[in-house]
Structure formats: structure tokens, C-alpha cells
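User: quick one - fold this with alpha-L-arabinofuranose bound?
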Amino acid sequence: MFRARHLALTALALTLSLAHAQSPQARIKIDTDRKVGEVHPNMFGNFAEHLGRCIYGGIYEEGSPLSDASGFRKDVMEATKNLGVSLLRWPGGNFASGYNWKDGIGPKDQRPVRPDHAWGDLDSNRFGTDEFLQYCERLGVTPYICINAGYGTVNEAREWVEYVNEARSTYWADQRRKNGRDKPYGVKIWGLGNEIDGPWQLGHKNAEDYSKFALEAAKAMRRVDSSIQLIASGSSNFGPNADWIAWNREILQNLRSEIDYISLHTYIGNRENNFERFLATSQDLDERIEVVAGLIQAAQSGQRNPRPIYIAYDEWNVWYRARGNTEFATGSTRLEEIYNYEDALAMGMFFNSFIRRADVVKMANLAQLVNVIAPIFTNKQGLFLQPIYFPIAEYGKQRNNMSLNALVTSPTYTPAPGRKPLGYLDVSVTHNTKENALYVNVLNRSEKLDIATRLDNVEGAIQSAVGVWTMNYDDLKATHTFGADKKIVPANSTYTAKVEKNGFTYTFPKHSLTILKVKLQ
Ligand code: AHR
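Assistant: Sure. C-alpha cells for the protein plus alpha-L-arabinofuranose:
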């Protein structure tokens, strides 16, 4: 019975896809004049938290034959470079809200071991501010430090900026010199705390109390270095009783003349084991971005010379398996998600949402870099790359491209009762003017249908040789492991398009992620 139904469905899908090869069912209409905004390099940021094996045993492992003299794992550095990471957020996350940066400087053997009350572990403090900033320099990535707006004080935040950025001879700048670093690090991006609206956060505050703290911290930190950029802790509490919009509205209103970004965090998961519903979570992402963009506009409205404010999506990923009641303060929290093929497709979905609003999403940080909900997974002998690694590395090549507002029509579905219908094709488009090429990013989130699609460039001829990067794997649940990470990988090819009137038809296979590189003439 099941087999007969399966065969019938397969036959139907085949017939549909063949039919569509002649008459496309979907359309992507591109106009290079319909510019959204530049894809900022910081959209390809990442995040390293003192949690589980992200820092210790991940990026830093003293005494390992795989590490260099500073204790940095060379294999992880290499994988990080190839991932195209532009920016690195540190030291948390929830960890930041209990962290005293002064514990992590000076001779390593004299640093105190402290309990971390965010995740229930002990921290040796052998990796601290200097190690983090040297790591960033070695990788050539921009550092982003998140201050402690939970248990910490305004003055500690001010002193941290002084330690890191002060050029003159002052107490904290001289401590830095004593610790071997003369030249200021010049850290430009600072977060004013992490997820302070969440009751789980150490030092959780209401919006009014947080605003007062953040305003004073901004003032104090900018007195040390007026050039720094600040990120307010936006709401990450989307629970049924939380009013995430009210939090964002209030802090934007209160902090609008001090901040450069407001943060957003989103983790998704295929808890119901429903592929198409899982990949419909772009509805939430798009809505959150839209709403916060509107709140920014509302806060700026009527202001003379309003300060530009952008969204820093500074934590995002799939995270649901390595999560549960033991998540906080158990001493064994590791968040070691093993990612599968469908999670790799979700990476495309996230980036498509960010790129579609590249005018306002000017930063995004995958959470996290290694071992902890991460694309890179280590043990003492080496590492493997998880399937999510590959789309992240590929989308990163679109930094500095111009995002375009493409018109997309495709067959629709309703992911869950009560939700709005949405297209099977999830699309974003960017334009690289130097290469004179369009990058067309297409997630086909139909589990069953290949979708023949007409692609039209409104003005200007296109070349017939189209570059195709694609990820497509039969088993949605397939994963990688040590010694076996070459299975769920992208394929590159060239498609010779039959170009007519500045357009052609391409069939996007079911459950696949494709990036077409279309050269303009
Ligand atoms: O990335 C894991 C955790 O998720 C972070 O520490 C916290 O900010 C978020 O809740």
C-alpha cells in the first residue's frame, strides 16, 4: 500500500517536473536597479563562547601536537579561514553575563579558576582578552567583545575598553603593556550585554533597568574611545508570555542616540520531524527582521539627524537536539549538535532572509564556531566539517555584493494550520558589479517537487555559461563524522543555458540548495 502510494507520488513528481521543464512553474525576475543594500562582510560573522569545548578543546588546546606555541589549534584556524569568517564575537553568550575580564589577563598560572554560573562549568581563565585578540589578529577577523551587563558594572566595562584600546599611559593600558602588548588593539565593536531580557540570563533586567545600565555603559566606554560601535541587547525571548516587541521598542526609544545596532537571536529546530515546516521558519526570521526594522524607523522618526541603527543578528543557527532540561548549570552542558543535510539547507534559508534585508541586517554571527552548535567538530586527533559548513563558506563569497529585490513566484504550501502560505522556492539575489555577475541563491524546500523556473534579467543580456554550486543529497538525515566528512558536500558545474530574451529556464531539484552565478554581458 505504502509502496504503491510512494510510486504514484514519484510518478506524479516526475511528470510534473518534466512538464515544468517545458513550461516553468516558477519565476525569478531580476532587475539590477532594484537595489536593497550592500551585503556587509560582517554578515559572515561567527561566535566563540566559553562553553563546553568551544574555547578549551576547540580553538585553544595547550600542549596538543595540533596546536601552535600560543595554544591555538592550527587545524581549527585553517578551517575557520576557509569558512570565510569575517568577525568573531566573544566571550559569550550567557557566559558574558557572569564574566570578569580581569580574571583572564596576566601570567596564566596566576589566573584564578572560577565557576561559570551560566553553564555550570569551571573556567581556568587561561584564554582571556589578550588570547582572544591575538587569535583574531592571526586569523585576520574583526573582534567583537560583549560586555557583562548582567552581574558586571559600568566601570568594569569602561576599564575593559581602556585595557584594550587606550594608547596613552594609564593604569589599564600599562597593565596591557606589562602583559606584552604595547600597541592598542583598537577593538571597534562592543556589545552592551547578552540576552538581558531573558529570565535565564545572569543579572536579567527589565527594559527600563537595562536601558539605564546601557546608557551609562555607553557613555563611560565612549569617554575612553569615542570611535567604538555599540550593540544593544535586543529581545531573544520569544516565549509565549514574553513581549519581545515591547522590549525592542523601549530600548530603541531609550538608546537610539547611543547605539549602532540592536541584536536579534534565533535558533530553530526540526522538532516535529517535518522537513517542509522546518524550512518554513524563514517566515519567523523575515517577520522578526521586518518588525525590528519598523521599530528602528519608529524610534528615529521625527529626530533631527537620527543615528543610523542596524540589526546585528548576532546568534543564529539550528539548535534543538543537544538541548534540554540539562541545558543550564549542570556542569555537563556541551551543546554538541551533530548536523545533518537538512540543517545545511537551513543555512541557505537564514542567509536568504538576511540578504533580502541587507539594508538593515548589517551583521550576523553564526552560533558558534567549533564543537558547540558549530560547523567544525574536533577531538584530540583532528576535526571534521559538518554539512552546515559548506553553505556558510559559499554564501560568504557574496560579501560586498549588492542585494537585489527580485520578484519571485513559485508554487506555495501552508507549512502548518493557521500559517500563511509560502513559496517552495526561498530566494535571494546579489549583484557583483566588479564581476558583472548575478548570484541567485535558491533553496527548494519542497520534499518532493523539482521546480522548473524561468529566470529573467529585466535589462541586459546574459551569458549562456552559468556557474552552478549546489548541495543535494538523498538522505535528509545524513551526517558526517571523523574520517567521513566528504559525503554531504557541494558540487560545482557549468550549465549551458538556452538563453532567450535575457532569460532561461533552470530546474531546481527537490530539497536542494543552489547558487547560480549568471554573468551579464
Ligand atoms: O549560543 C548558546 C547560547 O544561546 C548563548 O550563550 C546564549 O546567548 C543563547 O541563549
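One thing worth noting: Residues 49, 92-94, 194-195, 315, 367-368 surround alpha-L-arabinofuranose (CB under 6 Å).
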